[in-house]
From TrEMBL:
The chain crosses the membrane at residues 26-45, 57-76, 82-105, 112-131, 151-170, 177-200, 225-244, 256-285, 305-328, 354-376, 382-402, 414-433, 439-457. It comes from the Bacteria. It is found in: Membrane. This is Amino acid/polyamine/organocation transporter, APC superfamily. Pfam families: AA_permease_2. One of its GO terms (molecular function) is amino acid transmembrane transporter activity. It comes from Sphingomonas gellani. One of its GO terms (cellular component) is membrane. It is a multi-pass membrane protein. Gene3D superfamilies: Amino acid/polyamine transporter I. The keyword Cell membrane does not apply. Keywords: Membrane, Transmembrane, Transmembrane helix, Transport. PANTHER family: CATIONIC AMINO ACID TRANSPORTER 4, INNER MEMBRANE TRANSPORTER YGJI-RELATED.
Length: 471
């Protein structure tokens, strides 16, 4: 019903000149996961979440993390079963059919590109705050897009292009640099918790849920715990970038399991500690929509030097998130082009680095344009919509492949797969409908454009049209 399907063998069989080099081991993959997950969400979206849920932003982080945990278990089984680039897109191609795979891939393009742009804008906010705290003031026209009265967010554009250059240099080199940046981030967050926790005041947690648990319209915006969960959800995903790297893992069975599950566990503990410390140290009204909430907390509790260091650490380390997300998007583009759904000439790799150079450059330029012109909260919400759809698909793929291919080798087996898959789907659907209606409308428009491209080009040019490989 949903189009042609690839066999499990065809998914992992590629021409030599269109195969990615195996250069990554499990430390690289854990760093990719942590590098993507611990980023702008905890550094910048804590303020946005507090504005929507009050102190219950702590609960919003827990709910978003629980939904992502179900998705992470599904990703771990599927990635070790199908060690090919493309993550949810590739899984959907094998389990659900080409039509669904296209929608998922098109949504992943939205997720990764807007996630990169969101982090670039968040990085710009920290950089500007850090520079201004040193007494240097830059031209306002170059610090925000037209929505903020400026012309272009130049720092966001420059960091996106710089990361693009790093990725062009090669996958292993990029992943090694990412490990260093991840260590910087984790040390900075440990410093934040150490200084903020002594200022914890239970009075700041009252009332705990000022806007209620559900998602309801207030003043033109959705507020409540679930409304906050729908946006701080952005802070948790990133482990799907580990699944995207499956084809480049040296030992996929071991490395991918450790990378996906390990990074998710590490990041959940970190997020809960940081959220409790931030909301306990400062009233949520002060945190609301701050572009640099963690640095603001430390300055407010009499630790200006620590706040300065946190902002500096964000400036240094947040580009690791852009690196991982841009890496993920370039691989999605690459696999869709290799399958013929996008122009196949894009699916070429550099003989020197084994990385897809052309698609990486196109990805980097498009991300820089979005980061330079749009607002952080709108970008994050739209990126979340793409991710939620991908997670819904992965939950369905987990259950479908347990029925379709029960004897296929699974190097990691998800416990209670039908329960986990169902919870992932229902949780993501609830978060999806908790997003602002305008965001959902934009997401539907994006996919309508994508389907038009698929029926006009991709369906006719598909590799399966030339060489059928149905299951």
């Amino acid at each position: 019903m949903f189009g042609r399907r690839k066999s499990l063998e065809a998914v992992t069989r590629h021409d030599a000149d269109r195969a990615l080099a195996k250069t990554l081991s499990w430390p690289h993959l854990i760093a990719l996961g942590v590098g993507a997950i611990v980023g702008t969400g905890i550094y910048t979206l804590t303020g946005v979440g507090a504005e929507r849920a009050g102190p219950a932003v702590i609960l919003a982080f827990a709910i978003a993390g629980a939904v992502c945990a179900c998705a992470a278990l599904a990703y771990a089984e599927l990635a070790t079963m199908i060690p090919a680039a493309g993550s949810a897109y590739t899984f959907s191609y094998a389990a659900l059919g080409e039509g669904i795979a296209w929608v998922v891939g098109w949504s992943l393009i939205l997720e990764y590109s807007l996630a990169c742009s969101t982090v670039a804008v968040g990085w710009s906010g920290y950089l500007v705050g850090w520079i201004q705290s040193a007494g240097v003031h830059l031209p306002a026209a170059l610090l925000s897009g037209p929505h903020g009265g400026g012309v272009v967010n130049l720092p966001a554009v420059l960091v996106a292009l710089a990361v693009m250059g790093i990725l062009v240099a090669g996958t292993r080199e990029s992943a090694t640099l990412n490990i260093v940046l991840v260590v910087v981030k984790l040390v900075a967050l440990a410093i934040f918790v150490t200084f903020a926790l002594p200022a914890f005041d239970f009075a700041h947690l009252q009332p705990f849920m000022p806007y209620g648990f559900g998602s309801s319209e207030m003043g033109g915006e959705k507020r409540g715990v679930m409304a906050a969960a729908a946006i701080v959800f952005f802070a948790f995903y990133g482990f799907d970038a580990v699944a995207t790297s499956a084809e480049e893992a040296k030992q996929p069975g071991r490395d991918l399991t450790i990378g996906i599950v390990g990074s998710m566990l590490v990041c959940t503990v970190i997020y809960m500690a940081v959220a409790v410390a931030a909301v306990g140290a400062l009233p949520f009204t002060a945190l609301a929509n701050s572009p640099e909430p963690l640095a603001l907390v430390l300055r407010s509790v009499g630790q200006p030097m620590a706040g300065h260091l946190i902002a500096l650490a964000a400036v240094v380390a947040l580009p690791s998130v852009i690196l991982v997300m841009m890496y993920g998007q370039s691989r999605i583009f690459f696999v869709m082009a290799r399958d013929g759904l996008l122009p196949r000439r894009l699916a070429t790799v550099s003989p020197r680095t084994g990385a897809p150079t052309l698609i990486t450059v196109l990805t980097g330029v498009s991300i820089a344009v979005v980061a330079g012109l749009f607002r952080l909260d709108e970008i994050a919400e739209l990126a979340n919509a793409g991710t939620l759809l991908a997670f819904i698909s992965v939950g369905a793929c987990l259950m479908v492949l347990r029925r379709q291919a029960p004897t296929a080798e699974r190097l990691f087996r998800c416990p209670a797969p039908f329960l986990v898959g169902t919870l992932a789907i229902l949780g993501c659907l609830y978060l999806m409908f908790s997003l602002p209606s305008a965001t959902i409308a934009r997401f539907l428009i994006w996919n309508a454009i994508g389907l038009a491209i698929y029926f006009a080009y991709g369906r006719r040019k598909s590799e399966l049209e030339r060489r059928p490989a149905t299951a």
